Amino acid sequence: MKKFDKDRLLLAVAGPVLALVSALVLTVIVLAASGVDPIDPLRIMIDQAGYEDIQVLIINQAGIYYLAALAVAIGFRMNLFNIGVDGQYRLAAMISAVVGTAVSLPGPLHVLLIVVVAMLTGAFWAGIAGALKARRGVSEVVSTIMLNAIATSLIAWLILPKNFGVQPAGSNDLTTGDIPESGWVPSLSLPGGDIYGFTFVAFALGIVYWFVLNRTRFGFDLRATGASESAAQASGVDAKKMIMTSMLISGAVAGLTGMPLLLGESHTYNLSFPLGIGFTGITIALLGRNNPVGIFFSALLIAFIDKASAGLDQNGYAKEIGTILQGLIVIAVVVSYELVRRYGIRRQQQKVGEELAAGHALKTDNKEVAA
Amino acid sequence: MKILYGMQKPDEGTIAVDGEQVSFANPGDAIARGIGMVHQHFMLADNLTVLENVVLGGEKLYGIGGKARKKIMEISDAYGLGIRPDALVEELGVADRQRVEILKVLYRGARTLILDEPTAVLVPQEVDALFDNLRELKAEGLTVIFISHKLGEVLKVADDITVIRRGTTVGTADPRTATTKQLAELMVGSELPSPETRESTVTAVAMLTVEGLTLAAADAVAAEPETMGRTAPEDSYIRESAEAGRLLLDDVTFTIHKGEVLGIAGVEGNGQTELIEALMGMSAADAGVITLDGRDITKEPVRKRREGGIGYIPEDRHRHGLLLESSLWENRILGHVTETPNSKRGVLDLKAARKDTERIVREYDVRTPGIDVTAASLSGGNQQKLIVGREMSHNPKFLIAAHPTRGVDVGAQAQIWDAIRDARREGLAVLLISADLDELIGLSDTLRVIYRGRLVADADPATITPEELGTAMTGAATGHLEANNDHVEGSAAADGETTEDEAR
User: Fold this and answer.
1) Are residues B303 and B410 in the same domain?
2) Membrane-spanning residues where (chain A) (predicted)?
3) pTM
4) pLDDT, average across residues B364-383
5) Does A135 lie at the interface with B, CB-CB under 8 angstroms?
6) What is the pLDDT of residue B460?
7) Which domain holds residue B70?
8) Which of A57, B125, B331, B457 is a plausible cystine mate for A307, CB 3.0–4.6 Å?
9) Contact A361/B368, CB-based, under 8 Å?
10) Can you tell me the ipTM of this complex?
11) Best residue of A221, A222, A347, A352 to probe chain B, by most B CBs closer than 10 Å
12) Of all helices (H) and strands (E), which one includes residue A55?
């Protein structure tokens, strides 16, 4: 039994390693083919990660990515593709910023209110897709993508000065006004900069995610539904309810994605709030195999590529090299995981066959049945 | 078998085709050598026509148009397969689908045919038709490898018999001289396992009563292909009713007492699946009342019913009984996640679940190196034993056993029968649905025949023969089936449906 566990661990590591190595090799090939020194940009990126201020940026970014990836992973675990994390997160950040600005409460309560509003907004937006899927069978992929576009338009309208928006003097940016200081989450000050306090909440949420999925009845039902919907249904899972619940949870976590930035630095929602976090979250959830620890390292890696590649411009290289690397990672991940998965299944079947042939079956005693 | 078809590589040993030593890296190599396989689970695309299914993947051979059609008809006529190339596969019955599978293999130029448990899903009449086809193939000089655990059939159709047990050849036999008993002894290494239940344990206490259960096909999801497409091939009536999609279950009424096994015979697609789903709560009945142990469960969801004591051995264990890529202990939790020892107050108790999985593996003789392997890596028989063990571990009051021994080897079959018999002795009520008529007759205390969603006939398993039951399954006989009468009183039809079963 121990041997199978070790095998499984090895195989679990083999997938990402294979993906990363092949993505790196492909990047080098792409760089060489375009007539650029293939090694130097990578070296610069690694050098960049040595600076303390870059490290802080990476960790802060990783916290944001981590939340987005968790939101995606919850859906993935039951075969739901929540492509709409991006829209859910932006709308949630916007609405919670508006609410946070409008009210004034004592410290922790104020923060809590903002967070709860964000989760509710995210859950509501994802819930639309969930309800459409459960009631009408609409593919959540299509509906969440469309809801992303609707969220973009909705935010653009809501943030107009005649609605909730504020135009700071002498700027053509639009914001939702400033959240009073009681609604801020203190940051951890390091020599390289400030780490958002909510980043730690993000990583702690990974533990909650692990516990709920792996140790609770609800988590088991969710995973069973993902593994085989028909078997889960026969086991007593209400599939429609499960679609709705997991979409709501996924949306609620997606709603949290904007919180590190909103509560820790910007204290307002403005036009420069990052776009596309939800899509990066998909990459990270895939790379991390929906596993909280895997997602943690993937989030760090992608954040590293993001932040370290920014420095390439000053060294005469295009910073889009980072984007190329990320894109290649996605492709490599999908291919290598499938390869490893198939290999694993085949290998296990073979091993089980061998062990049984060698008579290593667990001690059997069918007399008890016959008796 | 997998090795012969190139799906797996041998560690040792050789294969010779036509005296020439060969090795197969993949099924393509095997096909090129003229070896073709007809799988137990059909591999056909339901929404394509027969012609399209046959040429799929073999487009290079004769194209996809007229030439292919000509070739198909040629093969079909040569071996008397009676193929209609333009029929949609979803409209075909099981036997027809099987013939399409055979044709597919012949179309690719196979000279050696491997048939894996081909009769598991057929009624006796269809089995005879299949055997006629096989004899045609034989007459044309083709080689057929017929894999089956039904000994009578092997004796009937084979020219030479090889018995395999646990991966080794244990003997060969000549079908002209061998008896089923001898074969069975070779197969299990001991005496013939028989589904015979010895003494009756039926009590007068009703455990499950079903009254007037009716289920109409919802138009939007009418005739789910897997279930409704599997209608009898020769019987246009059945197909028509499936297409019309009126009543999948029509006023089904029966009672199962404590300690009673009620067997339901019927050609697949006559409402068995729907009956199970209605009893499990997976589909809501349009009319009727289901009472379990004195409690009305008609409106309860699946989980409540399972907690209330319904055990379920599904007809398709891969779709409804297992998470194939999950470990055995996770599969042990499946369906009983809210019950001890699997969880306490919403939190899983992995330690207890694992321990109990080990117990099941031990007591039900599930052959596995450990409980962390995936369910997919076990053989069908061992998967089924795990399911039986799991369902029995929660002391069910009522067990739905749908084809409990389908695709299961003889040894496991006997163990599963034993488990059902033991539980029955302890007062379990069992609904047994099976295509294996020997199993039905042997295990059941009471037999009912389902036809087009109605229970049309009942029979006494002590006196009925498989042939008589087979006739009733095609709708040719209704009412109470008397064994010693060749003709059955059809007038009793109405009584047969509505009378409560008395304990026999």
Assistant:
1) yes
2) 56-76, 88-105, 111-132, 141-160, 195-213, 243-263, 269-287, 294-312, 324-340
3) 0.75
4) 85
5) no
6) 84
7) 15-148
8) A57
9) yes
10) 0.81
11) A352
12) helix A52-77
